[in-house]
Structure formats: structure tokens, C-alpha cells
Write a structure and sequence with these properties.
The structure is a homodimer of 442-residue chains.
Chain A: H1 15-34, E1 38-39, E2 45-47, H2 48-51, E3 62-66, E4 78-80, H3 85-95, E5 103-112, E6 124-133, H4 141-155, E7 162-168, H5 169-179, H6 184-191, H7 194-209, H8 214-225, E8 227-228, H9 233-238, H10 245-264, E9 269-272, E10 282-291, E11 301-306, E12 319-325, H11 326-335, E13 339-341, E14 349-351, H12 359-371, E15 376-378, H13 385-395, E16 399-402, E17 410-414, E18 420-423, H14 432-435, E19 439-441
Parallel strand pairs in A: 1-5, 7-9, 14-15, 14-16
Antiparallel strand pairs in A: 2-4, 5-6, 6-12, 7-10, 8-9, 10-11, 11-12, 13-19, 16-17, 17-18
Helix pairs in contact in A: 1-4, 1-11, 4-10, 5-6, 5-8, 5-10, 6-7, 7-8
């Protein structure tokens, strides 16, 4: 066959990048589990009617068909999931009788969207989601907990500082209703475009699509301008003179989210009243997340509170969740050369091979090191030692182990410093920093 | 919407099962890394022509199409991969200039096959593969290493003992050629059906499709009957009186595989000369793996040596690899109730909530425990303590933490034994067995 070429939008990492991805996913997982989120996976496919419940995303779905005619039709009309929230809502409804509520789960899986690829936008990408759902009603305090989990999960990584932008749909809807607007969703959709098209165009949209007067449109824009690292947004909104019970409720909730964040992680959250999240299903707090210094990348972690995603005729499971765009985050940081790994392979020690006849003895040395958690390979061939050392160098393996000949001790050499010492495979331990691959920023 | 129902062939685990799967995958990964295999992932899709290179599997492929007409055609003619070997071979060719050889990688991903679902056979399932590939030539000793890695990886799990059945394609081909058969591949395909259709039907097939005489067919069956837990198969084959240089080479290699296994892991491997592996691309050692006591399940881990999977006009990358059928293994063991987890959630401690006003203080306690690696949740509500304890019981959380009131010490209660002791969130540590979920057999 001829040499294959990459597929646009379907990123694949080289081994050092994949090592970094694995490290990042492991750290995120570990934080999620510390907060009691249980791991979950759903199948990659959903029935098309399930995927198309929100008309907006229909264009993004990849549909499956069997290459040859099927004996049975049970896998017809299936599409690849485009996020992890819709499959999770379906999973909760399907298994509600076997779950305990409030149910906390994390889910780290690939998703697929048939979009035009561009920087940081892929057709296949990895997401890491957490959600908390409850039966009938979901206590508000979980909306304050979600950003703290993300602060800890992303804060444990060698990546730039994050800033979670928080808003509450009730603030927007209550404000619009208090102004006298009758189609708050249309107003929200218009304001959602603020960063893309600017205030003048948003004002026009508000007038055209949400039936706003000129002064109502201006008030909506003044609300969207409000941004605060603390709870001072509350006074700023009230100073605009609009009143509505839903606005009061939303402001109280947003204050509580900001207070919890200030106590747990000062500087993590900012109240940003222009944040709307395009998706229709959010009903309370909404989140977007910027990397400080890389704001041009857009949000790398978004979500919010939803009330109607998982419901049948007689059951309702409101929830709150957030999704880290792992591929997006890594693709952007790789592009900026902002992450590196100490070595591309897990291997800490290469056991050198004096002659092919000694392979069994060298395998025993390797097994002794592995039993104590030290990742070890035996040299591919009994080439001259200089060549074996160069092999270790090329692979990034820091230590080469030399079997002692004629009763002499084995020795181990740090090939970076050249230091070589006597060693016993039953007791020698590398420095902690060399035991596993280390990921660092920059 | 109405209550959703499961999709045949697309298994999804409940939280306790998923916890077991996660544990199993983590252990397998950890062993792979101890042997210096680097993590890798490939995209889920391959160009159809790549997937259809082996005609046999064409019926199994799921093809993608965009739901709506595309602006560009760059994602036309893509299918979901049906194994991890074909994508890996493509990855090696595509990135050869950026890899160091011999290249060792592991890959744990879902694969898809449009087959009719049945017990232990899925349309979407998880595989865990290792492969070692080299440029131009691959030293034989890697064929002896692969079963040792699997022995360690699966041996570290609380599952029934495994037995790796080993054979060598050169033994079969050399034997068939030594007998005078001119189409050894047809003979191999016939013998491959031995367990399914029995020796009489295989003899008929050998005569019909491989041009064998009656006595040649009998000789082929006698070879296939040979099975030995040690290197005694060598004499048994030579006693059949067939000679061919390729047979000698194959027997020598199979002896070396069995010797390495006997030294490293007595009882792990058995030479089983009927093992053929249907796939055309194997050229040397082949492996299948049985669970002792569950032989009826068939092979849960298979692979072999291949020489021609990754090659372009001027480059060739021979390799050897093996694939653990993780979903298949777990599905069968779940069906036999042969695995259990100590609790379905990661959470070790539930912090009880005296009143909603004390949530911030309880969050601080939880944060202190998490900082020391103890997975902790705060109670969903300030219900009566009895109700909060029952919530912990339902979730399987072993410890409930009670904030001290009026200057009294905090206490922590093991709700299984009822033992309750004074505790400080900065120092208290649960027994090691309770810190994380434990997976056990039976």
C-alpha cells in the first residue's frame, strides 16, 4: 500500500503527546473520584430520534450503516453520539431503577461531530464530563460544587491558570421579563452572539427577533456588560432598576456560587453576565472556562444546570454538569508548545544484553525490577554496549543496567549524568522523579 | 420521551460493573507499562479501502455517512475500525519517521463489528492490545515475550487462571509442505475448523479444498492432536516422520517460546498444535487463551506474529501482538457472577450535615480529607442523621463523618461495624482496604 495520510478533523497524537494526554486524563479522573463521582461509559451510538431531539445539532451527526445487507435490522437508524450529556440522560432513564440518587458520575469518552475542521475543532474528540442528577428535584448547592471540582481537577495540571465564567439563566430571563420582553429565549440567543458580532448587531437582533424596543435592547446590553470577580455584580444589576421574582432568585443563586468559590478557591470564578450558552436545555447556573493568557482559545470547559433533559411522562431527573474538552485543550496547548513530558516511553530501565545467550538471565533481572514497580525493558539485541546505550537515549530511557560478569556486581548507569553505581535488582530504586514519566508546562 | 430500551450487541455496564471494568483496565495498563509499552490511541475511523484489504471482514464494517450533505467530502468513505491491529499498522506506516524501533505500544479502545449479537459476542466492545514492531526485521525473542506480558497482566487480576495455547504457523506450513501438500493455507483453514466441525469433516475438507490424499489428511489430523505442557511436542511431531526446513525452524521457535514460559511462569503456556488462527496475516507464533474452568467461553486473548501487515513499496514493519477481549472477558465473568466490587462508588467518607448553614464547614472537612487522597462527599441534605446514614448505606459508602458540636471533637463511624471514634480531618486515615474500591473474584 502507499503511505497513508492523516484525516482532517480526526487528530492522532504521537507517543509523547499521547503520554501527556494519558497523564492529564488520569489526573482529572483521580480528582473526579475524590469527589465521589463514579466512572461510567455509554455505548458510542444512540438511536437517531434520540440524537435529533434538539434540531440544532442534526447537521453534526454521523449515521451508521452496515456495509452489507443485515440479517436483522436491530442496528438500523443509529448515529454516533455528539456529546456525553444526551447519552447520559438516556442511560439514567433506562436504568433509573438500578441507580441511587443523587447520582454522581464521570464519563471520559470520544464524541463525533461532522463539522468542518478548524483550529481546536475536531470531528472526533475526547470529553471528560461530570454530572449530578437527582430524582424530581435537585438541591441548588450542587450548582456551587461543580466549579470547585473543575478548579481542583484542572488546577492539579501543569497548564495555565483557569477562570470559570459563571452566570445564571434565571438572571437573564428574569431581567428580560422584568423589562417587559415576552420572548426571553430569543433575547438570550441574540446576547449569546455578543463576542462574535458585537453590541450594535446584537441590539439590532434584539429588536428584530426578540421584539425589543431600542431602550430595552440597550438595557439587555448593559446587563451583559456586567462582570465581577466577587458578588458586587448583585448591586450592579440591581442598579439597572429592573425587577422580577425570577431575577431575584437568579441573583441569590449566583451570589451563592460566587461565595462558595471565593471560600474554596479565591480567583477561580468570575460572574460574567453575558455568558448565555447557546443550548436550550440550561435552566439555572451556566459555566464557561477560559485559560488565562489564552482567552482567544474560547471556552475549554462548559456546562450548566438542566431540568428537562431526562424525563419521561411520570419521571423527571434534573441535573447539573460540565464537560472538559480534553482534545480541544490539549490540541491548543500542543500547538502553543506549552506541555512536555520527561520521556516518551514508560520505561525507566533498559537492561543491557552482553550476549544473546544471557537473555534469560537479563529477563530475570527485568522481572525483579518490574515486581517492584520499575518499568523495564531488555535490550533488543546483544549489540556493542555503545549501541545499546544509544538505543536507550533515542527512546528517552534514563537508566541502563549492566549485568556483572565473572561474579562482579551488576551496575546501573544514569545515562544523562554518566553516574554509574553497583546495584541489586532486588533493592535498587530510582529517584521518585524518574520512576514515572513527568509532565510539565512550557 | 418514553423509557428507552437497551440496544442488542451494544453492552453498557451498571456502576458496579463499570467500576470493575475500570479496575481491570487499570491493572492491565499498569502491567503493559512495566514492560515498556507506551500508550497509544488511533482514531475510531479508517478509510474503507484500508478496512477492506482483507475481504473476509467486509461484512462486519459499519460505514459512516453525514446526516446532511457535506460542504466538503473529506469524511466520505470512512468506516469504524473492527480491530486495533489494522489501524496500528496504518499508524506505523504514517508516522514511521517519528517513531523509534522496535516500537512497543499498547492500545485500549472500543472496536465495532456489525455481527449478529450472541453470548460474549458484541457489536461494540473493548480490546486491550500490545504489539511490538520493528523496521525490516523483528527478532524472534519478542514472540517469546508476548505471552509473559499477558501472563503477568491477567495473572494480576482476580479472575480464573489462564492458559495460553501456543502454536507456530511455520510448524503447520512446514509439515504440510513436507507431506507434499501444495496449498498449505487451504489446509490451515480446514484444520482451523477442527473444534467446530470435528475430525471427520476436517478430513473431508482437507481432501476437497487442499487436495490432500486420505493418508495426508490423516497425518494433518495427527499433527493437530498434539498438545503438550512442555517441549515434548517436539519429539511427538518428529515421530510423525515428516521433514521440511520450515518445520524445523517452526519447532525450534516453539521450543524457545515454551522454554521461556516454563522459566518465567510455569503452567502458563501449552503447545497446542491445532491452533491455527483464521486470519491470513500470521506468519510465526500464534496465541489463543483459555480461562481454566471456562474453556467453553473460547479464547479471550489471541494474536500472533505477522510480517506483511505494515508495508509500503520500500518499507516493511514486521510485528507480533496480542489482544485481550476485555468486554468479552468481563461479559462472560459478569454472567457467571465471578467478579465483585467492595462498593459501587469511589466515595470512602460521607460528611454528615447537621444543618444546611454548616455546609461550608462540612465542605472544608471534605476538602481536608480529599487533599490526603480520601474520596469524600458531603451529605445531599441536612436530613436526620439516621436518614443520612441510610443514604451512605445505599451508596455503599463505609464511613460517615460527624462534625463535633459545641467544641466537641469530630467523630467518624464505620457504619458496617458501628464503631465510632474521635477523628481529625487533617490526620485520620481509613484502613488501606477501605481507601479504594476493591475488586475480588467470586
Amino acid at each position: 500500500m502507499s503511505k497513508p495520510t492523516p484525516l482532517s478533523g480526526f487528530p492522532e497524537w504521537l507517543p509523547p503527546q499521547r503520554a501527556i494526554e494519558q497523564y492529564v486524563v488520569d489526573r482529572i479522573r483521580s480528582t473526579f473520584e475524590l469527589y465521589g463521582f463514579a466512572p461510567l461509559e455509554t455505548r458510542a451510538v444512540e438511536p437517531l430520534d434520540q440524537l435529533l431531539r434538539k434540531g440544532e445539532t442534526s447537521k453534526e451527526v454521523y449515521v451508521l450503516r452496515r456495509l452489507q445487507a443485515a440479517e436483522d435490522a436491530s442496528d438500523e437508524s443509529l448515529g454516533l453520539h455528539f456529546d456525553l450529556t444526551v447519552p447520559f440522560a438516556r442511560y439514567v432513564l433506562e436504568n433509573a431503577g438500578k441507580l441511587t440518587f443523587p447520582f454522581r458520575r464521570y464519563q471520559i469518552q470520544k464524541v463525533w461531530r461532522g463539522e468542518r475542521p478548524q483550529e481546536g475543532r475536531y470531528r472526533e474528540f475526547l470529553q471528560a464530563d461530570i454530572d449530578i442528577v437527582d430524582r424530581d428535584t435537585l438541591p441548588f448547592h450542587y450548582e456551587a460544587e461543580i466549579p470547585l471540582v473543575i478548579g481542583d481537577a484542572l488546577g492539579a495540571l501543569p497548564i495555565p491558570q483557569i477562570r470559570i465564567q459563571v452566570n445564571n439563566r434565571k438572571v437573564c430571563e428574569g431581567f428580560y421579563r422584568g423589562l417587559g420582553l415576552t420572548d426571553p429565549e430569543a433575547a438570550l440567543r441574540a446576547v449569546d452572539k455578543l463576542d462574535k458580532i458585537g453590541p450594535d448587531k446584537v441590539a439590532e437582533l434584539l429588536i428584530e427577533t426578540a421584539g425589543a424596543t431600542d431602550s430595552q435592547a440597550k438595557a439587555c446590553l448593559r446587563l451583559a456588560e456586567i462582570s465581577a470577580p466577587d458578588t458586587s455584580f448583585d448591586a450592579a444589576v440591581r442598579a439597572l432598576g429592573v425587577e422580577h421574582p425570577l431575577l431575584d432568585e437568579g441573583l441569590d443563586e449566583l451570589v451563592r456560587v460566587m461565595e462558595a468559590a471565593a471560600e474554596h478557591a479565591p480567583g477561580l470564578c468570575v460572574a460574567e453576565l453575558k455568558i448565555a450558552r447557546g443550548l436550550d436545555y440550561y435552566t439555572g447556573t451556566v459555566y464557561e472556562t477560559q485559560l488565562v493568557g489564552f482567552e482567544r482559545f474560547g471556552s475549554i470547559c462548559s456546562g450548566g444546570r438542566y431540568d428537562n433533559l431526562a424525563s419521561t411522562g411520570n419521571e423527571r431527573f434534573p441535573g447539573v454538569g460540565i464537560s472538559i474538552g480534553v482534545s480541544r485543550l490539549l490540541g491548543l496547548l500542543f500547538g502553543a508548545d506549552a506541555l512536555s513530558v520527561s520521556r516518551p516511553v514508560p520505561t525507566c530501565v533498559l537492561v543491557a544484553l552482553p550476549t544473546e545467550e544471557q537473555r534469560a538471565a537479563c529477563d530475570r533481572t527485568a522481572a525483579a525490577l518490574r515486581r517492584r514497580g520499575i518499568a523495564t525493558e531488555v535490550s533488543p539485541s546483544a549489540a556493542k554496549y555503545g549501541k545499546q546505550i544509544r538505543f536507550a537515549e533515542r527512546r528517552g530511557i534514563p537508566y541502563v543496567w549492566f549485568p556483572g560478569s565473572d561474579g562482579a556486581h551488576d551496575t546501573v548507569k544514569d545515562i544523562r549524568s554518566g553516574d554509574q553505581v553497583d546495584a541489586d535488582a532486588a533493592t535498587w530504586t530510582p529517584p521518585a522523579a524518574d520512576l514515572r514519566q513527568q509532565v510539565t508546562g512550557g
